[in-house]
Design brief:
Strand content: 15-25%
CATH superfamily of the largest domain: Trigger factor, C-terminal domain
CATH topology of the largest domain: Trigger factor, domain 2
Structural class: alpha+beta
Number of strands: 7
Order of helices and strands: EEHEEEHEEHHHHHHHH
Helix content: 40-55%
CATH class of the largest domain: Mainly Alpha
CATH architecture of the largest domain: Orthogonal Bundle
Number of helices: 10
Length: about 325
């Protein structure tokens, strides 16, 4: 804003610059060639779940034989680099399930074939992308003592096993319940993917440009989210990039593409909502705010923010987008 003329109590003239959204030509939203994914559950999916539950109920007992994959071993170990011990490289009475990939490549494999009482050295190399930079790519020697080998005995897959897992009288009833839950999970995933694919198809069939200022805003939001997520896990965005093997330039290129996609998606949905007169009633917005108040009732800061008109408008916008997505789904499932 530039003031060009100002006379107190009489005249105020100014020039203002504002970004204007480009013209958007919406494609045919009723004929989007998008297929919904199949939600059928395969027998292998059911048995994968049962296998994990079965392992949780496995009983273990010490055995006098050579260790093999799937066993649990109790070990003492001590690692060194050129004869010098390093931090975090030693432990006593450590329980390790062979095949869990909890250690660097070669460690667990190197224990296989050894028996209780064996002491031996493992000459290994840390992966180049190892999270600790001072160890990444370095050659190391672990001195290992096997103190105990435990074998897991898996329960039989029968009605008794089913009863241990919950309110099931038969094994078939357990399988049916798992199939029901997996089907619901698949349905939720398929619904979300269907919405994403519909929006992507609508963007492709429409004439829409993403203004640079909106892309920059979205990039900032994405970066803030990444930094917050990284901080919550105890590291920085720079640490994340190192672990993922990306340079900041490569990451920013990906983020820019993602930001552009999000902006275009938002714009076409806004135009669709406008053209179809899709609105959210104040009562629905108020109900959502009350729901959020209950969720954040212990946070004074969050409760205070819900009084902000801008926050209320943001909630209304989100609900409108959600309603528009549901409309788009309905129009393409007839």
């Amino acid at each position: 804003v530039e003031i060009t003329k100002f006379v107190p109590d009489e005249t105020l003239e100014y020039k203002a610059e504002a970004d204007i959204l480009p013209d958007i030509k919406l494609g045919d939203f009723k004929k989007l060639k998008v297929k919904r994914e199949d939600i059928a559950v395969k027998e292998d999916d059911i048995m994968d779940v049962i296998s994990r539950v079965r392992e949780a109920y496995a009983e273990k007992a010490p055995v006098k034989r050579a260790a093999k994959m799937g066993d649990e071993v109790v070990i003492d170990f001590e690692g060194s680099l050129d004869g010098v011990k390093f931090e975090g490289g030693a432990a006593k009475d450590f329980k390790l399930k062979l095949g869990s990939h909890a250690f660097i490549p070669g460690f667990e494999e190197g224990i296989v074939g050894h028996e209780t009482g064996d002491r031996f050295d493992l000459e290994l190399t840390f992966p180049k992308d190892y999270h600790a930079e001072n160890l990444a790519g370095k050659k190391t020697v672990f001195n290992v003592l096997v103190k105990q080998i435990n074998e897991f005995k898996l329960p039989e897959l029968d009605d008794e096993f089913a009863k241990k897992c919950g309110p099931f009288e038969t094994f078939d009833a357990l399988k049916a319940d798992i199939e029901k839950n997996l089907t619901e999970q698949n349905r939720v995933k398929a619904d979300e993917k269907f919405k994403d694919d519909l929006v992507e198809a609508l963007v492709k069939s429409s004439k829409v440009e993403a203004p640079a200022i909106l892309i920059e805003d979205q990039i900032r939001f994405i970066r803030q989210d990444m930094e917050q997520n990284a901080k919550a896990q105890g590291f920085t965005l720079e640490d994340y990039l190192k672990q993922s093997g990306q340079t900041e330039e490569e990451w920013m290129k990906e983020v820019k593409n993602l930001a552009e996609k999000r902006v275009k998606a938002s714009l076409v949905l806004q135009i669709l909502a406008r053209d179809q007169k899709i609105e959210v009633e104040d009562e629905i917005v108020e109900a959502k705010i009350n729901e959020l108040k209950e969720v954040y009732k212990k946070s004074k800061e969050a409760l205070e923010s819900l009084k902000n008109p801008n926050v209320r408008q943001d909630i209304k916008n989100r609900l409108t987008i959600e309603k528009t997505l549901n409309f788009l789904v309905q129009e393409n499932t007839k």
